[in-house]
Amino acid sequence: MTTEDVLLTADADGVRTLTLHRPKAYNSLTVELKERLLDALREAAAAPEVRAVVLTGAGKAFCAGQDLKEHVGLLQAGDPAPLGTVREHYNPIVRTIAGMPKPVIAAVNGPAAGAGAAFAYAADLRIAAASANFLMAFANVGLGPDSGASWTLQRLVGYGRAAELMLLARTVPAEEAKQLGLVSEVVPDEELAERAHTIAAKLAAGPTVSYAKIKEVLDVAAQGSLEDALLAEDAAQTVLGSTADHREAVEAFVAKRKPDFQGK
């Protein structure tokens, strides 16, 4: 690991922490960082030893979104790459975050804008530092939402509020973000990393196979009817009822001891 790495990876207690590492550029997203992040997320999703993931940023920002300097430079050079980055990078990143069969926590350590904010919205849990804020900045640069923000944001705060935040491109401070339901809690800046890891480690020690099914069922329910949700719940319970983790939980309850979950 060197100081030139644009993405840092650390493992502890079954938790993999991915840190966007371009602090001087507010962790804005270059092609290199997007490709590294996508690879790292896919690796974390597939690795059995990784039972929870934390996504955070280095320095004073979580992620400022697209690196506009690189974007403009490529456009001026006639490079078509910027026009395909939604399809090639942002969409796969968000699909991987949202579809990962294990919990993902966004530890929002500072400003989160554009695609950076959308990555946090796609996570299962969001914890914010007091200095954090959120900005749907797309309209400011003459673009529409990407990275799934049109889907995730309105499911967190409702259609009307999502429209307001996107059309007005208004910055939402951390405490307001908590009131709106964008984040579950706000902690002092210096406590964020420890708090995020504590929650992630607790999840990592839990029944991760159950967490994967919970995510699947919530996804079905968010897009479908009550009947769709009922069928998805039934299918999930049928699978989970035969898992080792379920048997362990029941036996531990009867024996009045703490269960030892294996994610199986």
UniProtKB/TrEMBL annotation:
<comment type="similarity">
    <text>Belongs to the enoyl-CoA hydratase/isomerase family.</text>
</comment>
<dbReference type="InterPro" id="IPR029045">
    <property type="entry name" value="ClpP/crotonase-like_dom_sf"/>
</dbReference>
<dbReference type="GO" id="GO:0003824">
    <property type="term" value="F:catalytic activity"/>
</dbReference>
<dbReference type="InterPro" id="IPR001753">
    <property type="entry name" value="Enoyl-CoA_hydra/iso"/>
</dbReference>
<dbReference type="Pfam" id="PF00378">
    <property type="entry name" value="ECH_1"/>
</dbReference>
<protein>
    <submittedName>
        <fullName>Enoyl-CoA hydratase</fullName>
    </submittedName>
</protein>
<dbReference type="InterPro" id="IPR014748">
    <property type="entry name" value="Enoyl-CoA_hydra_C"/>
</dbReference>
